[in-house]
What we know:
Two copies of one chain form a homodimer. Chain A is an alpha+beta fold. Chain A folds into two domains: 2-75, Glutaredoxin (3-Layer(aba) Sandwich); 86-190, Up-down Bundle (Glutathione S-transferase Yfyf (Class Pi), Chain A, domain 2). The first copy, chain A, is built from seven helices and four strands; from the N terminus they run E-H-E-H-E-E-H-H-H-H-H. In chain A, strand 3 (55-57) and strand 4 (63-65) form a beta hairpin. In chain A, helix 4 (86-115) runs antiparallel to helix 5, helix 4 runs parallel beside helix 6 (157-166) and helix 5 (126-144) crosses helix 7 (180-190). The longest helix of chain A has 30 residues, at 86-115.
Amino acid sequence: MIKAYGSSTSGNCWKVATVLTLTNRPFQWIEIDSNAGGTRTPDYLALNPNGKVPIVQLEDGAVITESNAILAHFAEGTRLLPAPGLDRTRVMEWLFFEQYSHEPYIATARNWIAWKRVKDKHAAELPGMWDAGHKALAVMEQRLAKASYLAGNQLSIADLALYAYTHRAEEGEFDLARYSWLRAWLDRVSAEPGLTSLPAAKKAAQ
Amino acid sequence: MIKAYGSSTSGNCWKVATVLTLTNRPFQWIEIDSNAGGTRTPDYLALNPNGKVPIVQLEDGAVITESNAILAHFAEGTRLLPAPGLDRTRVMEWLFFEQYSHEPYIATARNWIAWKRVKDKHAAELPGMWDAGHKALAVMEQRLAKASYLAGNQLSIADLALYAYTHRAEEGEFDLARYSWLRAWLDRVSAEPGLTSLPAAKKAAQ
């Protein structure tokens, strides 16, 4: 059986469980706590020298790294990834956008504030994170004002990649009220059969 | 004719000129100075709402964003990108690695130190940039100790994506002396017919 190594609270890891579920592949989930050093052990580094979750191990032992490469791998040949050509390229644009212009801000602010609870420690950096994250959300809003999905006319791994952290962006203190098209898209994606949400962080004691 | 908009000193933009050249596609280069606001003009934002170089505009007006999506688009069907399956996934892993774990550190340190010449302003952040960049270079070294190319047994867009900033990493004060396999790979890639180097920064006055 396919093994997926990841942290259940990570949006990058959520992508893996979601694409395996939506493409009907049974898998075993192996929980790794990256905030507690679980990705820096010698055993884990032997699987992924870059020391990050998620990874997938195929039945023959081959390991696939990088959440968006995993999305593309398992989406190949399904409705979630168009055939090669401009339609596929539109999906790829969003996958790279997510890893470069979205995740580093939105996932990081969420992790600091809601999960690691080190907001005070990062007080100087957070305004820059919020600015950059809102730029990314505005780019998504501009697309979603014109179309129901990020790439093409139906759900693809572009939507899964961006849904991962956007649906918990408020945990990073990103107010989504101004993004009406984006919020409608969140509802649309969340209604997809088989799709689950990331766990919500417990509220910090006031 | 295809139009490529980019900054000649940017590794991300170098990727575009390189893949178009290696796949024998004539193109017109339109120089954009992103350090001087050239990506934030209304005309440019109409082409790429994310306000980044490079982009490519096809003959029918369609615009492709994200340097690694552009690499994959033009490499489709050539020796530079294997057919779908695990061999292609190996290429995709490196493309996402480059944008998440390599470029944000190696390209940024280079830009601050050698091109914008604002090393002093970023003195507090640079040690973290160097640490993270060396982690990425060490991951490449581990692969290149075992294989001549990053993915599979021949040149692919994985090599082009990583060569882009690695061959000028020393401008960001990354000492490559410790990475003998990586340096041999730089020589191997640089010997590819048609492949050029990024311009070297002028040395700052001492």
